[in-house]
What we know:
By secondary structure, the protein is mainly α. Helix content is 61%, strand content 0%.
Amino acid sequence: MVSKIDVQVHVINYLYSFSGLSADFILANCLTSALTNPPLNLDSTSLGFLTLSLRGYIKSLDPSQTITTAETRKPGLTVTNLIALIVLKVSAV
Length: 93
């Protein structure tokens, strides 16, 4: 079973790779920021790639679960909400 901290680390690392911001900056400044708003400013393409990456991560932990682009493109979705969604999907403790 994966821990919530492990999920948070993976989600932050994926965000780091698609936003160009450092993982430390994301942790310090972006947890309550919406994915599509500053400072992350992820566009539709970046959100699509983020979804594919997260889908692979989720499937590696629980093959019966997935994440859709509708879930990651939900207006106002914050980093914290995204982490909580992934934790819920993989039943992290």
